[in-house]
Amino acid sequence: MSIRVMLVDDQALLRTGFRMVLAAQPDMEVVAEAGDGVEALQALRTTEVDVVLMDVRMPKLDGVETTRRICQDENPPKVLILTTFDLDEYAFSGLKAGASGFMLKDVPPGELLAAIRSVHSGDAVVAPSTTRRLLDRFAPMLPNAGGQPQHKELERLTEREREVMILVAQGLSNGEIAARLVLSEATVKTHVGRILTKLGLRDRVQVVVLAYETGLVRAGGGAGGGTA
After folding, report:
1. pLDDT reading at 21 higher than 90
2. Cβ proximity of 174 and 189 under 8 Å
3. d(CA 125, CA 100)
4. pLDDT digits (tens, 9 = 90+) for 99-112
5. Using an 8 Å Cβ cutoff, are 171 and 127 in contact?
6. How far is residue 119's CA from residue 137's CA, in Å, rounded to a whole number?
7. Is 46:90 a contact under the CB 8 Å cutoff?
């Protein structure tokens, strides 16, 4: 079954380029296009979409707010934010809004296709280390930056799960976490899965965002104060 993709960008020429790349893939099809967020939301009412490639700077309704509205729906498509600059505030805001990752607009075609497949399979495209660099830069914009952990759901985590969550937020891979905590990678993967389930998160990127939002991890990667 093909991955159904929607292209959302106010530049028709850019959409054409993406469409040509995707059309050459046997496992992908472009099922909808939109020139702004309003058109995108309208299209999603009548078209079943798996992955949305979302520009951020658009008229009428920008990509961040469009992403937020999409991700509030039940069983929403995955959203990949398209941005011009690495580490910009739009990528940060897009991740906070629920996007599963972001890509630079000049990404090589092979990387774009791999990202679409990765997101569709349930993985996050942006490495936690990249997300951490974003959040280190923009953490002052968060309401609880550097404060005590405030998220009630954190109380549902075991002490070990909190340890794992902090290390994920610091940008460590499962293998690195396993070495740090002297666990098997399979065990770490199980812990990460339980964290996602207990906190209602879709992927590791959202784990990192939440860790910063709640103050569990501070800008610079250190663990926050307080215990649950």
Report:
1. yes
2. yes
3. 7
4. 888 888 888 888 88
5. yes
6. 25
7. no
